[in-house]
Design a protein that fits this description.
With 77 residues, this protein is an all-alpha fold. The chain has three helices and no strands.
């Protein structure tokens, strides 16, 4: 059956049913984004107030970026 043969209401209902079957990853993405923001803020604070050695701060920021990349991948899926 073609989409042109369906009424607008039937098309909308088909889309709703299809989306209902999909996994909702919004809450997981929010948690990952929150972890990223916390690690980024902590890493920046460590970088600016931590003294001459910036390596630990960069490691914390890199760990936050890992969470951000995972969140980005979930957004695409």
């Amino acid at each position: 059956m073609k989409n042109e043969e369906l009424s607008l209401e039937e098309q909308v209902e088909r889309i709703r049913k299809k989306r209902a079957k999909q996994f909702d990853n919004t809450s997981i993405r929010m948690v990952l984004n929150t972890l990223f923001l916390i690690l980024a803020a902590v890493g920046l604070a460590m970088y600016f107030f931590g003294g001459e050695n910036h390596v630990p701060a960069l490691i914390v920021i890199a760990a936050g970026m890992v969470f951000k990349v995972i969140e980005f991948i979930l957004r695409i899926i």
